[in-house]
Amino acid sequence: MDLNAFNINLGATEAIALDAKSEISAAYEYDTTLALESIIKEYASTGESQTLSFRSLVSWIKVGERATHYIHPYPAKLLPQIAHFFLAARGYFGKGIKVLDPFGGTGTVALETLLSGNEAYYSDANPLARLIAKVKITRIDPSALTSELEIIKFSYKQSRAKKAPDVVNLEKWFTPDVIRGLSRLKSSIEKIENLDIRDFFLVVFSATVRRSSNADPRLSVPVQRKPSNVRKNVSAIEIFSQQAELSIQRMNALISLSSEDFKSHNVGFDARQLKKPAPWNSESQKQLAEGTIDLIITSPPYAGAQKYIRASSLSLGWLGMAGSGDLKGLENQSIGREHLPKSVWSTSFVSSVPAANDLIVRVRQKNPLRAAIIATYINEMESCIAEMSRVLAENGHLVLIIGNNEVCGEIFSSSEYLTTIAEKHELVPVLKAVDEIKSRGLMTKRNKTAGLISREWVILFKKVSSKDVK
Ligand SMILES: C[S@@+](CC[C@H](N)C(=O)[O-])C[C@H]1O[C@@H](n2cnc3c(N)ncnc32)[C@H](O)[C@@H]1O
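A: This is the predicted complex of the input protein with S-adenosylmethionine.
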């Protein structure tokens, strides 16, 4: 397909001519520099945000499987097309660049970075997300995985169930047969000596945990299935084998789409304090040096609506990453959390963004906890944005993907508040776009708003030195 002067439908904006086919790698066939420059120019002349469809902008990326993106479900994953569009603009951002996602989740940006031939840096507060991200971007010989799967199945037959894991309300979520099956599987996987192969099967195991549980698969946090939907005769080993085969095919696709010399770096567990690269699951004591990163692409949590730890709780328990008593501690490190101890409410009613403070006052009259949650969110996000600005090189860029949400019937305009904060930290917006997508919201209820279309802001900032900021 020759995309030279190929016009694409961008919704409300004008059609834009894409660059000629210019292969970066097997997964990055087209350079999007012309399209990006054209929408930046439009923003510069109108100053207005533009409605775009990132799916249409990179229409050559088919919706569905792509390398290892779908090895494990996770709430509020980023649309790979958004990362792809920016990473493919080589003429704008450069080649062989260092790309960071401090709220890396399960590694959508890290994987697209790998596929685009750049160098990935990632962090996340949730240990399950970090494990999935690491596995997604680790190239492993598929034939070694196929052989290991046979060994696991054999070892499973010989194994006996061990002590039940520390999972909240274990018997509520799993039948006795499934608990025995998962426990035998886990001990078979733990025998694997090669750490990369073991981690791969731990991710398959984690996907099996959720699928073999009694939790409604349509919801991100565990909510029991309705009695009419409860399944009989669930077999953990069967689900595991099917999941493993699918994920080995995904690994095959990853190998054929990427190159061997890919570099990735774990830069810690907290977007407020990025660390020098360390082996993926260990913490470095030293700060990530300032000016290290060329491009940040990140989708931070929403305010007061995030349930990442609760959504991962069954897997965190089965994997031994966090038992029932550790979940609260992990949630406390998560930005956008829904709970705050009463003792801190009274100290957290003022945010660092004046425009948000009127809203906080209004929300406080209705619900003091929600007011404290949103003020805390803004203040914690300010620490993250300051950190992103610190690690960005001069003239480096940040792509921030964020949605506004409703708090006590009021619109909480994250896109506006985070832009105000970014401008305080030498980050100047050069493009504001709105993408209309299926809601990324984390649902807890099976309600009819579940499929609502929501809007996501995609804002591109450029780091300028403070002397150049007017
Ligand atoms: C919208 S999700 C990112 C999803 C990711 N882009 C993906 O495609 O999987 C936001 C992430 O921020 C993480 N998070 C929350 N607080 C954090 C913190 N203080 N430091 C780093 N990550 C944090 C959550 O664990 C969650 O994975």
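Confidence is low (pLDDT under 50) at residues 1-17, 439-453. Residues 74, 76-78, 102-103, 105-106, 108, 123-126, 129, 270-272, 299, 301, 308, 333-335 surround S-adenosylmethionine (CB under 6 Å).
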